[in-house]
Write a structure and sequence with these properties.
The chain is of the alpha+beta class. The protein contains nine helices and 13 strands. The protein has two domains: about 1-95 and about 270-295; about 100-245, Gcn5-related N-acetyltransferase (GNAT) (Aminopeptidase, 3-Layer(aba) Sandwich), CATH 3.40.630. Helix content is about 40%, strand content about 25%. Strands 3-4-6-13-7-12-11-10-9-8 form a ten-stranded mixed β-sheet, with helices on both faces. Strands 1-2-5 form a three-stranded antiparallel β-sheet, covered by helices on one side.
């Protein structure tokens, strides 16, 4: 934490990984988020932030810091003035630019094939059942959506014991606490479903603020896979973000075809590697040499 005359100016939420060699600092709770960054007070002076935090990190006992999932317009890149080096494996975060556009204008930016496909699928599903988009407005609705998402993710990981264990240990309690609880249900969380006659066809857990709608964790009912409820839901979410005048529909990291059907825009997330000791510097040099030898 960096203090100035007015109180805390910046915080680096980091964890010291003692189970890795050499010991290193990484973002705290990176596993449950898509972006990682410093936390800084508005108007904090840029010049002293990074040198002061780097000096504090050097006293942590870590040999180096490996800070991943950094957005190029984030605090670390802008406030600290420390532009991250490109990571070994760049991660892309696709987004749909909505600012100043009507839904008709946004939809015209999609391919004619996608527009026709969504209308056809919506009509086809409507012939089978009276489906509707619903934003969860109370604790019971949120709880049902959260449990649906948890169950579907659990089903998908049935053949992956380690991932399934991590799902139950990390994601499930996090989702129940953040999305189902009354204390945060109406704050900046966004829970929505496509449903028909009380049956959930697809659900989404995400976040929204004044600048972005964050498309985070979707799930769909496999019994209705042929009707593409997941695709219909994300299409509806973009429409709702336009109506709410949110400037960006952010699909977060993940190079998936269904995301690229909605956009051709993306930011490249970066990694900042900082050596904090001689051991860390030696490790970084050996790693760079290995990459060159492997042609990466």
């Amino acid at each position: 934490m960096l203090d100035d005359a007015h109180g805390p100016a910046a915080i680096a939420p980091l964890a010291l990984r003692r189970d890795l060699w050499p010991r290193r600092l990484q973002w705290m709770a990176a596993d449950v988020g898509d972006y990682c960054d410093l936390i800084a007070a508005p108007g904090a002076a840029a010049a002293p932030v990074w040198p002061a935090l780097r000096a504090a990190m050097a006293k942590s006992g870590a040999a180096l810091a490996e800070l991943t999932q950094i957005r190029p317009d984030g605090v670390l890149a802008g406030l600290a003035g420390a532009w991250p080096e490109a990571g070994a494996k760049p991660m892309l975060a696709p987004f749909v630019a909505l600012e100043g556009k009507t839904w008709d204008e946004v939809e015209q930016g999609f391919s004619a094939q996608l527009r026709q496909e969504m209308r056809r699928k919506g009509r086809r599903l409507a012939k089978r059942m009276d489906w509707a988009y619903v934003e969860a407005a109370n604790a019971a609705q949120r709880q049902a959506a959260v449990e649906f998402v948890i169950a579907e993710k659990r089903r998908q990981l049935a053949d992956e014991p380690e991932a399934a264990e991590r799902h139950e240990r990390v994601f499930a309690p996090f989702a129940r606490d953040i999305f189902a609880g009354e204390r945060v249900g109406s704050a900046r969380t966004h829970v929505s479903v496509l449903e028909a006659g009380g049956t959930i066809l697809a659900a989404h857990l995400g976040f929204v603020d004044a600048e972005r709608f964050y498309y985070w964790v979707p799930a769909y009912n496999p019994d209705f896979q042929a009707d593409s409820p997941g695709q219909l839901l994300i299409y509806e979410l973009v429409r709702r973000a336009v109506d709410a005048r949110v400037p960006v529909f952010d699909m977060l990291r993940g190079d998936y075809r269904y995301k690229w059907r909605l956009t051709d825009k993306a930011v490249e997330l970066q990694t900042l590697s900082e050596t904090l000791s001689l051991a860390g510097a030696g490790y970084a040099k050996a790693k760079a040499l290995a990459k060159r030898m492997l042609g990466r």
